[in-house]
Design a protein that fits this description.
239 residues; 60s Ribosomal Protein L30, Chain: A; 5 helices; 6 strands
Length: 239
């Protein structure tokens, strides 16, 4: 009788362990991917299955061909240099008229004082103008030097042959005054960068202001307007 009770208790313990393992979908003991699994005595590995290379299911149909290999335009790196991280969104490099120079979704988190984004087709810095300029001014402040040094260092490292410098404002004031202000900020940023770049003569600069066009955030809030006031410095890449 004692033997039967012992066996019953043992069976109940095994059943309980199995139920717990099944409930949490976690094996009681799991081998590391790189560890060799110890097999029970007398175990023999099954023979690999025979594969017929001429089987119809493994053959391309008549007239079919493999697609040419291609590199997808994927997000590569998003690095925040002064605030909360925001993923880069692929887009046109902004080198031509009519292109969306913002190249980002209008909604999203982040948008610190300075942001560096590298995708498979573009390298871009986004600098909030509140760091570079005084309110309503296109004259660079003393605090702008550090931010522009970061940009100049990247340009010297990657040596692009074309660099876009675009200025943007919020929707406060008239569109025409925004064009004048954003254009002046872009041009003064350009002049400052020239003095920091090793060999600016080999670079074609595309400099212009877009006023309130291409907002990244909601202009209905003060935070959104602050983040929309920005200068974007970018260049196309072959990565």
């Amino acid at each position: 009788m004692r033997y039967l009770l012992h066996q019953s208790a043992r069976a109940a313990a095994v059943l309980t362990t199995a139920l717990v393992a099944g409930t949490f979908a976690v094996p009681v003991a799991a081998a590391d991917e790189n560890d060799e699994v110890e097999q029970p005595p007398g175990y023999e590995a099954p023979a690999p299955p025979d594969i017929d290379p001429e089987a119809a299911g493994l053959m391309l149909g008549d007239g079919a061909a493999l697609a040419d290999p291609r590199v997808l335009d994927i997000k590569f790196i998003s690095e925040d240099l002064g605030g909360t991280e925001q993923p880069a969104e692929n887009g046109d490099d902004g080198s031509g008229d009519g292109a969306d120079p913002g190249g980002e979704e209008p909604n999203g988190g982040g948008g610190g004082e300075q942001r560096e984004e590298r995708t498979s087709g573009q390298h871009k810095f986004t600098l909030q103008t509140d760091v570079l300029f005084s309110e309503g001014s296109d004259e660079l402040s003393e605090d702008s030097q550090g931010a522009l040094l970061e940009v100049a260092a990247a340009i010297n490292e990657y040596q692009p042959t074309q660099v876009n410098i675009f200025g943007f404002t919020d929707d406060q004031g008239s569109y025409e005054s925004g064009i004048e202000l954003s254009d002046g900020r872009a041009r003064n940023t350009h002049e400052a960068l020239i003095s920091l770049i090793d060999n600016p003569s080999v670079i074609a600069f595309n400099v212009r202001g877009y006023s309130e066009d291409y907002p990244l955030y909601d202009n209905g809030t003060e935070e959104g307007r602050q983040r929309n006031r920005r200068v974007e410095i970018s260049w196309p890449t072959s990565e």
